[in-house]
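Why predict the complex rather than its parts? Because the way molecules touch one another can change local conformation, and only a joint prediction can capture that. The input here totals 726 residues.
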Amino acid sequence: MVVTPPYSSCAFRPGQTIRELVAILLPMAMKNVSPGDEKCRWRSRFCARIVWLALACIIPISASATDVPQPVASSPLTIDACISRAEKKSPLMRAAKEGLEALKQQYEEAWWAWFPRARLRVIGAVIPPQPVGEPVLDVVDSANVSEPTGLKVLQGPDLSDWNAGLDMQLNIDLPLYTFGKLAALRDMASSGIDIGQAAVRLARSELGFQVKRAWWGLLLSKALDDVISDGEAKLRKARERLQRLEEEDDDEYDQDDSFRLRIYEARVEKLVRQNAQLREVSNAGLREAMVLKPTDSLVLPEDDFEVLSTKIGELACYVDAASRERPEISMRRHRVQVNRGNVDRRWGEFFPDFFLSANYTFKLSTVDQEANVFSAVSFNGSGGAAYIGLRLTLDYGSKLARYRRAQADVRQSEAALDVELSKLRVELTQVWRAARDNQALERLQYRAMKAARSLLTSKAHLYEDGLEPMPFKDVLDASVQYLMQKSEWLKSVYSFNVGVAQLSRLVGTDVTRYRCSHDSKGNAE
Amino acid sequence: MKVVTTYLMFALMLTPLIASAENPDPQVMIQGHYAQIERVIKADKTDEGVRSKIVKILESFTDFREFARMTLKKHWKGLTEAQRVLFTDKYRQLLHKSYVRHFKANQELEVGFRGAPRIVKTKAMVMTTVKSGKTESDVDYKLHLKNGKYRAYDIVIDEVSLMRNYRKQFSKIMKRDGFDVLIQKIQKKIESKDDNDSDVD
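Output of the joint prediction:
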């Protein structure tokens, strides 16, 4: 890919430009000139300006050079490389990974709940002058005969002038015992991470399927191109031959051959259109999954389109594997765990939290405060305390409702898991059956293709080297039959390969690498 | 005693050589012929030159009399020795023409073997796959032991036996028109130009 720099008038190559300019211009600019040498001083200033101008010109070039979009690969890609790129670049995967990161932070947050929580409050204030009145007297009426009754003088601080004050409070709480509330929160957050990880596997699985389907589609299209061009060449030759025979009014000319040829041409044309559609859809699918720009090149290998060499095992084996490996099932299962944790948390809310608490207060101001027993407002001083506390809210009606709702959530998520498992069995049966049938059909189509090839060879041999005249239509029929059979076989290879990818997507693991273990139920490979 | 031991060792060393001479490997033989064909295709610049040399290679490993006998099968018994010799000669020329028409100068040829040769008593079958450009064909050689050497009596291309394909036509002509007409038709085919091109490959 060639990108012309926007500042082409500079005509310097990025990377070399700075070195070259510095090498040429800086010695001139930095040349040691005597203070009185006006000519040299002028030259120095001129060169310095040139250097700055050049640098200003270079920076956009360098920036544009680094922004040049590089082609994905000039060498042929592999299917694994495509999947790897899709996993790196796809927004689907990015969203799943960011979701997992958020859940991990939630776990961190739950974990920090075990540690002391400190609160610091600092207030600084400027106190304006207050009007000075008469001393405030209050009537003290005490029933206790040992205490005096009568008038009490309330002596306040001196606020007749501007003052400044600082009030600082520090509180520290440490949970001692919460009846399982914090442990439940931590367990819920831990299950949340499992859900996030399953979501990442789900995204990976989905991307893998999308890439494989598009990949096999492109390879099928390429293989069909060869079949089509072969067929078109044969039909073209047949058409030329028929035209020649017709022009020569040859006895061998049969007008039925012309009609037959038209039917075959229509069949090949249909194949051409279907193939063009397949190529475009697969190309768009692969580019979308790999997040490729329209300008990025996509070079596929020249390898033959081959059927996957794998054996489809027993259904029970895949049902077993899917119930363990499938991300959707895993997410449902962990959702049940989260809801169970919530039940524990709600149960814990019926009981109080015991905690260790400590506080410290410090007050400092410029207020002239007479420290005596009559003072009601304190502007200066410090003090603290530590205690074991108990916290309990008494809204038991709400608590009971929340607890029952959490229990209902567990039952609902368990039912949803059962639904997912049941749906999985149905879907898996369908896809597994299709994959097995496609495997058998692929073998069948291959044998049919070979037979069609043999028939063509036999007809062609007798037509070319036989002793008896043979109608051309026999060779033409065999030839078209072979081409159609070959395209059918290639399509069956595609169906099987995509079926295997679909099965892998459904099971949650690559079934071509999965081996069913021999278990007691007889779910053998 | 020393002399006896030396003779014994010499005899033991010779044994595998004798055995291999008695039972030649059919695959090695076919491999050798393909190597010769590949050399000819690369060395010769003209199609005609290539084909004339491949005819010689075909001659070196084919038992045309057996090929002819198997093709005519039940009709073979009714022929005189002179007719058999005549038929074998004409049939040889027809097979030359049929076999060598697929070879061209500078043609790319890739040969592979599909498993080990199947050997039953004096008969063997060597299964090969020949790839030329985008076309791939299975070419199998049916061989039998004759004078200590394997000789081909049929060539099977993509499961189509040359011998059986011709047998069907020859039998029809023999029944309908007789031996002389068959020879005439073969002669006519040998002399004809290759105007029938099915463009299979």
